[in-house]
Amino acid sequence: MTWTIIRVRHFLHALNERCEHMKTFRPKKQLSVTLLELILVIVVIGVIAGFAVPSYLGSRDNALRREADAMVLLIRAAEQARDARGIGYVLCGGTAACNTALDLDLSGINWDYSVTVTTGPDAFCVTAARAGVTSRVISDTIWTPQDTPCP
């Protein structure tokens, strides 16, 4: 029986030494981010932004252009309705003036709308202007909005 106790003690002592030995080689928990990982994350974010930002800006400009096209078509329809009632075309030099003269509710946040009355084949010309962006123009004979100046 003593022999068994000695063997068990010897086994436990060897196991304890082995555990102590393994504690020294156990990797410590990593609580920080390495510089390489940080650089990798920044590069991935940069690549994603490189693709996403131009696409977003193109979509935004396209939406603004479509807004201007819709509003100049609305102003042209209001001008033609006035002319059909025998009132004639009206001149307005800004979004607020067009809203009042044509009884519209145009938003002047993105574009400034104006109507010029002419004497040629185009009886009027509607312009949507925005700083840094080509104007969107439509008239009595131009049926789709264009990036050209008024005739």
Relevant terms:
151 residues, alpha+beta, 3-stranded antiparallel sheet, 3 helices, 3 strands, rod-shaped
Concise structural overview:
With 151 residues, this protein is of the alpha+beta class. Helix content is 54%, strand content 13%.
The secondary-structure class comes to alpha+beta
Number of strands: 3
Which strand order do you get reading across the main beta sheet? 1-2-3
User: What's the shape?
Assistant: rod-shaped
Helix content: 40-55%
Strand content: 5-15%
Q: What is the string of helix and strand elements? A: HHHEEE
How many helical stretches?
A: 3
Q: Mean pLDDT, rounded to whole units?
A: 76
Main pleated sheet: 3 strands, antiparallel
- Catalogue the unreliable spans: none
Q: Alpha-carbon distance between the termini?
A: 116 Å
Task: Characterize the structure shown.
The chain is of the alpha+beta class and 151 residues long. The protein has a domain at 62-151. The protein is built from three helices and three strands. Strands 1-2-3 form a three-stranded antiparallel β-sheet. The protein is rod-shaped and about 125 Å long. The model has no long low-confidence stretch (mean pLDDT 76).
